[in-house]
Structure of Putative cyclic nucleotide-gated ion channel 4:
Amino acid sequence: YSPLQSKPNPILPTLHTHGRTHTHTNTQWDMANHHEQEISHAYDDSEYEEEEEEGEDEEEEEEEKSSGDCKTMKGTCGGGRRGGGWFMGRVLDPRAPWVQEWNRVFLLVCATGLFVDPLFFYALSISDNCMCLFVDGWFAITVTVFRCMTDALHVWNMWLQFKMSKRSYAVVVARGEDNGSGRLHDMSARTVALRYLKAKKGFFFDLFVILPLPQVVLWVAIPALLEKGSTTMVMTVFLIMFLFQYLPKIYQSVCLLRRMQNLSGYIFGTVWWGIALNMIAYFVASHAVGACWYLLGIQRAAKCLKEQCIGTKGCGLRTLACEESIYYGTTSLVRDRTRLMWGENKVARSTCLQSDDNFDYGAYKWTVQLVINESRLEKILFPIFWGLMTLSTFGNLESTTDWLEVIFIIIVLTTGLLLVTMLIGNIKVFLHATTSKKQAMQLKMRNVEWWMRRRHLPQGFRQRVRNYERQRWAAMRGVDECEMIRNLPEGLRRDIKYHLCLDLVRQVPLFQHMDNLVLENICDRVKSLIFTKGETITREGDPVQRMLFIVRGHLQSSQVLRDGVKSCCMLGPGNFSGDELLSWCLRRPFVERLPPSSSTLVTLETTEAFGLESEDVKYVTQHFRYTFVNEKVKRSARYYSPGWRTWAAVAIQLAWRRYKHRLTLTSLSFIRPRRPLSRCSSFGEDRLRLYTALLTSPKPNQDDFDF
């Protein structure tokens, strides 16, 4: 006698001796620990790989050391949280859904910040009237506000990083570091905060990328340089400070991108988002290159004006800077005679601002029409166009011998070569991932068409095959769900199938009164099936191979009676067929031969169903026999059984016809003498026909569902 065969109740093994119970419990704990170690190793492979790439081995050792100290001093660690707690709050799981959503949002915030920073360059402009350099005040205010908004979101992300663990909470539970309250203990929270504070790419790195360097340069340094007349130095200082912070900002975005991929394996989960991210990166690079090109173009124009000013009598270097270094659009009369004379200098204007033929602008010759342009939108869009064109064509630039210009062109061309190569390669990979399944489907259909032509199948069969393949593709998009789940570990596979199938299995009335253990085993063994319209699933008399539980669509169940008369009924969502397997599996003594089908099943429309094979039905009924003894389960099985329904319908029809005949003959007694009945031949023939139909109708076995 084995209690697990009759009732697989986990409580039963505890009824044995104390030694056996202890052995069984230890075995369960060993299996659980082995499973937890597998989970821990699976997470550690990606996370420790990321930590090695980041060079944070020392921080990890400190964390393990502090964790060990906490385990040795349980009273201290446990009492700390009861007393005051850690002001940072509990540790956040990096794989929590809302954390991953925030990481996606923050990635877009980083892209926005990379787009905002080059806009500071467009605040510099040259006045067309006075031929002097100034700062566009309103545009500078707008860009500064956008920069402060992105910095505020960066600060919020830094606050989250103080509480963000490098490891998932599942790994901590597997290692036994949880204190049993569903959250990490306070010492872990302190360790996480200190590790972020001491990491090489932690707090101080994130703080550096949000320092207001462009704001300080634009609002403090540039006005001071303009007052001194150092117009060409303005662009040099601005460019150096910009690159000093912009390049680490790019590196931070790349690190965030890699961390998101290491945590979840994907970022947004769709191929089109991958293409969009690559296009966004390409446009941001074009925008940054175009902004630098605009700034260097202003420097070249300021250099030209400086040369003309030196050659003009009475012109000082301060004349090249406007009287109002930060200009807000207010019109005021220029009373300085020197500035008026400089603004009317036609030679300097024609040489530096009206044409690029009189001065060697080199690669910046197209900036001549921008530096004095009052349209802010044109100032932004045209450099982006230049950046896209330059990064895409790898050349067609006429450069001077100026070393800064040559270096700039070399960097732009090299960057364009790398970006275009990466963009084309990534888009090719993404498009291949999108179209590979469709191409595989087309190849499979070509092979199927060749096979059908080779075998000379009729057109009706060919059309049925085509319809089935199309509907299967429309339902699953070429994904073999069974193959994907089959390769997973057993525990994970059971959990996934339980999650996917539980709600649909519960829709079957036969399973509504079963416990979770039985439902879990049923979910682990059911298979999703799709049938096209007009498909014959089973024929009457054939061995029953499986039980079908209808999820969507309708089936027609028909039985042939005497003289070719058919009895039909329709099965819809919630109904099932193949109930002959239940009585076959539960009958004693057991017979190996499969029971014959009592009806023919034909699909009335495209139908989705769950299939439970005969071996699986046998397994469930043998190991969970106690469930099918339940009266509610037996009543549900009889009520939804097509065989019992058909027999009941025939019996009700016969009873109703007998009642109608009794009303016709106005008789109060059902038993009539033979002589009057023989005189009414029609009634006798009808009654004989009715009794014949009743006796020949396929009434289910009396032992069915009497378990």
Remarks:
- The CA atoms of residues 385 and 645 lie 75 Å apart.
